[in-house]
Design goal:
alpha/beta, Undecaprenyl pyrophosphate synthetase, 7 helices, 6 strands, globular, binds 3-methylbut-3-enyl trihydrogen diphosphate, binds magnesium ion
């Protein structure tokens, strides 16, 4: 009997390369970030036809605060505009928004917008998880602390206390822009995820690129230590 291709349920993406995209075109970094948001919008629209249950996007790391203040401001303003402009589309398209990371530490108006967006999309069938002020080591320490408080320091208990606890297991982790590192993203969750590093800069990443990644994933043999 022929083996069936496996389908990815949960894909996460480290969206990298906005700055280099802009630089190559002689444009300000802010334009690169703007075009990055447009790439996100197109991708979210493609999630349903691709049969994904969950798409997780790394939007702002806990280390990205180290960037110049005007760049951080640009990114936060883009976030505000994105939530405002795209929330109706999420609701209409049955997308459930989920935020992972220490997002309560963002500006109060953003926290408020996010709380509202989470509430309004709570019943969506497919999940868009956005990592904001996210750092995997912080997430693991937090989970370990919570698990220890419950006197249950096991893998299962720790898993339950991660921000990703109600998301499907991570199948595929993609990073754009040619960098081959995880930059403190989903370190625990990626233990047996398939990985794909592509040279495409994030603003140029299209639903076709994601489909190609899913086709690649479908062909891979996952062994999880067995044989
Ligand atoms: C990714 O693009 C966006 C964020 C990290 C917020 P970069 O801004 O890191 O782009 P490069 O890596 O400098 O090209
Ligand atoms: C990782 O990209 C974070 C996001 C994509 C949000 P960075 O550009 O911040 O990562 P490094 O600094 O190159 O490792
Ligand atoms: Mg980068």
């Amino acid at each position: 009997m022929e083996e069936q291709d496996q389908r990815a349920r949960h894909v996460a993406i480290i969206m990298d390369g906005n700055g280099r995209w802009a630089k190559r075109k002689g444009l300000p970094r802010a334009i690169g970030h703007q075009r990055g948001v447009e790439a996100v919008r197109k991708l979210v629209r493609a999630v349903e036809p691709m049969g994904l249950d969950c798409l997780t996007l790394y939007a702002f790391s806990s280390e990205n605060w180290r960037r110049p203040e005007d760049e951080v401001d640009d990114l936060m303003n883009l976030m505000r505009r994105f939530i405002k402009s795209d929330l109706p589309e999420f609701i209409a398209n049955d997308v459930r928004l989920k935020i992972i990371g220490d997002w309560q530490g963002l500006a109060p108006d953003i926290v408020e917008m996010l709380e509202d967006a989470l509430e309004q999309t709570a019943k969506g069938a497919r999940t868009l998880a956005v990592a904001l002020n996210y750092g995997s080591r912080q997430e693991i320490v937090r989970a370990a602390r919570l698990a220890a408080e419950g006197q249950e320091l096991t893998e299962e208990a720790l898993d339950r206390h991660l921000y990703t606890n109600e998301l499907p297991p991570l199948d595929l982790l993609i990073r754009t822009s040619g960098e081959v590192r995880l930059s403190n993203f989903l370190l625990w969750q990626a233990a047996y995820a398939e990985m794909l590093f592509v040279d495409t800069l994030w603003p140029d990443f299209t639903p076709e690129h994601l489909q190609a990644a899913l086709d690649d994933f479908a062909q891979r043999e996952r062994r999880f230590g067995g044989r």
